[in-house]
């Protein structure tokens, strides 16, 4: 983030949430940043090309779209099996995050699927993979926080905000 | 938290959602360009997207950054035991006040695993995160927990709704 100038930082602080829904959204943001619309668009293109911005779009509420989400804990006692299991798990498009963690439950992944039946189907398939001893389905029962906005001016923070993570 | 659609989505809605969740066009009138691709009027796209943003169907709209580049070296999921389940919300709210905590959920316990409150903590090192965990323990009065440091990231993507292979 060192190659960002003050204008870039100001842009990042103004485009991480609440992107305007109007005829000329970039013109509105350009006014806040204090540059022209054309320069703003050019700088956003550059921030994407320089791999500072990963994606510029909408994050949807999976539940309101009718999707079901959960967190899954997997215990693989012989860690030699873990890479193959992790790769198989990652093949499902419904798996959004998949982390190896320091615990007897050593693989944790989040799942967002079109139905509960699909979740069961995926969990059954993961349970049958070689080396898998236990698979625990841990759907969220309550949500207390999802952090959505990160300032670049101070400490740089960024996190995903997928349901079920 | 089982999914229940608030409304049903037309094919045009799904097409619109597919485009919005990718990268929106970087041009002076991006919704006009999207309208052209979907086959809707500019005004119709503004109305639908405006409604979705207002109703919370769109939870966040804007740029997502690469977080490794933003100075994060470590992430740790900590699962806490809450001896009195009725205090779950109160404890969750205490944890949520920590800026280093990006996610906080309550999840079911299971045999041999009494932990129910899950916090995702970000920091620049394991040592720094250990410090936050201690502070969170003191602030909440909760002691029993499992620290789940990430050893390796095998996959991290954004969910793509209404994809091609999606039967729904």
Automatic annotation (TrEMBL), chain B:
Pfam families: AsnC_trans_reg2, NirdL-like_HTH. It comes from the Bacteria. Residues 69-155 form the Siroheme decarboxylase AsnC-like ligand binding domain. Keywords: Lyase. InterPro entries: AsnC_trans_reg2, HTH-Siroheme_Decarb, NirdL-like_HTH, WH_DNA-bd_sf. Pathway: Porphyrin-containing compound metabolism. It is an enzyme of class 4 (lyase). The keyword Glycoprotein does not apply. Its EC number is 4.1.1.111. Coiled coil: none annotated. It catalyses: siroheme + 2 H(+) = 12,18-didecarboxysiroheme + 2 CO2. One of its GO terms (molecular function) is lyase activity. Residues 13-59 form the Siroheme decarboxylase NirL-like HTH domain. Belongs to the Ahb/Nir family. This is siroheme decarboxylase.
């Amino acid at each position: 983030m060192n190659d960002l100038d003050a204008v870039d930082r100001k842009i990042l602080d103004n485009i991480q949430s609440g992107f305007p829904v109007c005829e000329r959204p970039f013109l509105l943001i350009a006014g806040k940043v204090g540059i022209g619309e054309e320069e703003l668009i050019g700088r956003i293109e550059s921030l994407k090309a320089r791999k500072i911005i990963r994606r510029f779009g909408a994050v949807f509420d999976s539940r309101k779209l009718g999707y079901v989400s959960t967190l899954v804990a997997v215990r693989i006692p012989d860690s030699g099996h873990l890479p193959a299991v992790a790769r198989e798990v990652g093949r499902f498009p419904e798996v959004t995050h998949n982390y190896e963690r320091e615990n007897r439950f050593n693989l944790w992944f989040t799942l967002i699927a079109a139905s509960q039946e699909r979740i069961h189907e995926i969990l059954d398939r993961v349970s049958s993979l070689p080396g898998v001893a236990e698979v625990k389905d841990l759907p969220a029962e309550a949500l207390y926080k999802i952090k959505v906005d990160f300032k670049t001016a101070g400490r740089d923070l960024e996190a995903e905000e997928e349901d079920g993570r | 938290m089982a999914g229940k659609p608030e409304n049903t989505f037309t094919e045009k809605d799904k097409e619109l959602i597919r485009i919005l969740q990718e990268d929106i066009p970087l041009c002076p009138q991006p919704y006009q360009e999207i309208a052209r691709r979907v086959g809707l009027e500019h005004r119709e796209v503004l109305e639908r997207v405006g409604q979705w943003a207002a109703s919370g169907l769109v939870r966040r709209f804007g740029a997502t950054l690469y977080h490794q580049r933003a100075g994060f070296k470590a992430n740790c999921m900590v699962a806490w035991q809450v001896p009195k389940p009725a205090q779950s919300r109160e404890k969750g709210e205490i944890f949520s006040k920590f800026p280093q905590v990006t996610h906080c959920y309550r999840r079911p316990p299971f045999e041999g695993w009494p932990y129910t409150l899950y916090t995702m903590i970000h920091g620049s090192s394991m040592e720094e995160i250990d410090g936050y965990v201690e502070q969170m323990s003191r602030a909440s009065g909760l002691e029993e927990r499992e620290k789940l440091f990430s050893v390796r990231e095998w996959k991290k993507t954004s969910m793509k709704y209404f994809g091609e292979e999606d039967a729904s």
